[in-house]
Amino acid sequence: MTTATDSTTVVRMLAERYGEAWNRQDLDAIMDLHTDDSVFAAHAAGTPPAEGKEAVREAFAGYLALLPDINFAERALHVGDDHWVLESTMSGTVAQPIEVEGEALGERGARVEVDCVDVIEVRDGLVSSKQTYIDSLAMQRQLGGE
Q: What is the rounded distance in angstroms from the CA atom of residue 120 to the CA atom of residue 115?
């Protein structure tokens, strides 16, 4: 019988492995921790959610190409039986201008550092949903937007 404490320990361990994979920019390791029907939404980007493992992989590959040294510095981790919420500072070096609402912002080599919150749902020991919220206004300001 699995208790709530056991469940949260398993989720916490998954969260740690997932964060380490992201901070290594290891797309294969990230995707190994996702369900086949996983969903990803970047709420600041204004794009529709990626649905299914291949679409999620493609979306993540785009972010890794844009910020090849992306890092999520944990500020707080809140763990439940079937989810976690990560409050972090997302930082990285821009590889190319970032398209925001039809406007190219920043230039190659620009640094960004913004507040980020990820709401992650877990099913059968894997990530089934990743909802990402970033401070897009701060990012725009850092990249020279208004």
A: 16
Percent of the chain clearing pLDDT 90 (strictly above): 73
Q: What's the CA gap between 110 and 78, in Å, rounded?
A: 31
Domain of 18, in residue numbers: 4-142
Overall size of the chain counted in residues: 146
What is the distance between the alpha carbons of residues 91 and 67, in angstroms, rounded to a whole number? Answer: 8
Q: Report how far apart the first and last C-alpha atoms of the chain are (Å, whole number).
A: 55
* Mean pLDDT rounded to a whole number for the chain: 91
Split at pLDDT 50, 70, 90, the class of 57 is very high
- Tell me how many domains the chain contains: 1
Give the ranges where 24-98 is alpha helix by DSSP (H): 27-32, 53-66
Verdict on whether the full-model pTM lies above 0.70 = yes
Instruction: List the alpha helices (DSSP H) in 24-142.
Output: 27-32, 53-66, 136-142
Question: Please, are residues 102 and 12 in contact by the beta-carbon 8 Å criterion?
Answer: no
Among candidate residues 116, 145, 118, the one with its CA nearest the CA of residue 131: 118
What is the CATH number for 60?
3.10.450.50
